[in-house]
Amino acid sequence: MPEATRNSATNRVNINLMGQSYQVPCLPEEQALLLEAVALLNQQLDAARAQGRTISKERTALMVAVNLAADLQRARQEMQARDEQLDRLENRLRRLVDMGRGAE
């Protein structure tokens, strides 16, 4: 399990990825997010290795990174589409309110 050691304004978080230990500096308020990201990454790495193909650790890590980057890009596109939809809805509501005020 990752652990954190306090060091002035930042924490040094000990993480383990693919059998390797790393110390990663992060702000205290970002530590929970970092640990969640490490858990997700480990889950994806384990899933990739469980597929049974014998590939190097580096190739596995690269494949997982590309998949996670694609997921991030998809989420950004979905968020942008929702923002645009909300903007259109807001504009429509403003027009309807303006029309209602004109009728008073």
UniProtKB/TrEMBL annotation:
Residue ranges that the Swiss-Prot or TrEMBL entry lists as coiled coil: 65-99
GO cellular component, one term: cytosol
Record bears the keyword Cell inner membrane: no
InterPro entries assigned: Cell_div_ZapA-like, Cell_div_ZapA-like_sf, Cell_div_ZapA_N
Subcellular location, principal: cytoplasm
Cellular localisation: Cytoplasm
GO terms (BP aspect): division septum assembly; FtsZ-dependent cytokinesis; septin ring assembly
UniProt keywords, alphabetically: Cell cycle, Cell division, Coiled coil, Cytoplasm, Septation
Sequence intervals crossing the membrane: none
Pfam families xrefs: ZapA (PF05164)
Assembly information from the UniProt record: Homodimer. Interacts with FtsZ.
Function: Activator of cell division through the inhibition of FtsZ GTPase activity, therefore promoting FtsZ assembly into bundles of protofilaments necessary for the formation of the division Z ring. It is recruited early at mid-cell but it is not essential for cell division.
PANTHER family per record: CELL DIVISION PROTEIN ZAPA
Protein name, UniProt field: Cell division protein ZapA
